[in-house]
Amino acid sequence: MEQTFIMVKPDGVQRNLIGEIVQRFEKKGYTLKAAKLMDVSNALAEEHYGEHKDKPFFGELVGFITSAPVFAMVWEGENVIKTARSMMGSTNPAEAQPGTIRGDYGVEVAKNVIHGSDSPESAEREIGLFFNESDILSYKKDI
Ligand code: CMP
User: Fold this and answer.
1) Which residue from 84, 76, 80, 77 is spatially nearest to 33, judged by alpha carbons?
2) Which of 53, 96, 103, 111 has the fewest C-beta atoms under 10 angstroms from its C-beta?
């Protein structure tokens, strides 16, 4: 079954959006496999956002994600990588459709509430950066 990495960014944590975001994924039907509130180190931020290292906003991006705790999660389900991206909406909240997480809760591209893996390769890499194998749990939902 497919897994993806989802992270509520510092702005989402501080605006008390963790519960709302978790609820959207739960109600959609996905399974929460791991979750933690954590500070992101500079090294982890630079590795996680490595593909953006030549972009002019890289310093701002790393500075923001390391500024306050994030809520990191692994979600599992059919097509969860692609579907989570549509639930999140466009990267720039100004362009995100109403009804999506960024469309409903975001204003600025730099503070866009949530991150989600954009491909199976990114999901595997990002889950591995933020979690140990033993953090990813299995359980029955129908007990
Ligand atoms: P995310 O999905 O976490 O992946 C890369 C992030 O870079 C993206 O969300 C945005 O928050 C951020 N980003 C993209 N464009 C800009 C920009 N022009 N200025 C600041 N941050 C940006």
Assistant:
1) 76
2) 53
